[in-house]
Amino acid sequence: MLQAIIKKGKVVAEEVSAPILSAGEVLISVSHSCISAGTELKSVGNSGENLLMRAIKQP
Fold first, then answer.
1. Cys-Cys with 21: which of 25, 35, 45, 56 at CB 3.0–4.6 Å?
2. What single DSSP character describes residue 55?
3. Are 4 and 11 in contact (CB under 8 A)?
4. What span, in angstroms and rounded, lies between the C-alpha atoms of 51 and 46?
């Protein structure tokens, strides 16, 4: 399955193994999806900062 991952400040699609399901859980096959530019691009922009600096900027 493909997963959007932030690497070195860029979003890449990588093949990952399917999660192992517990009792009562289901895995849903998604045929179409949308990434909202606002929230995800903010995450990409902040991905290069260390966690402490992000916490100071956004407590």
1. 25
2. H
3. yes
4. 9
Least confident segment among 2-6, 14-18, 49-53: 49-53
9 in Cβ contact with 47 (< 8 Å): yes
pLDDT in tens, 5-14: 878 777 888 9
Domain ranges of the chain: 2-18+33-57
pLDDT tens digits for range 14-42? 999 999 999 999 999 888 887 776 666 66
Of 50, 37, 31, 30, nearest to 11 by C-alpha is: 37
Of 11, 19, 18, nearest to 47 (Cα)?
11
* Residue 20 Rama label (left phi>0; alpha psi -120 to 50; beta): beta
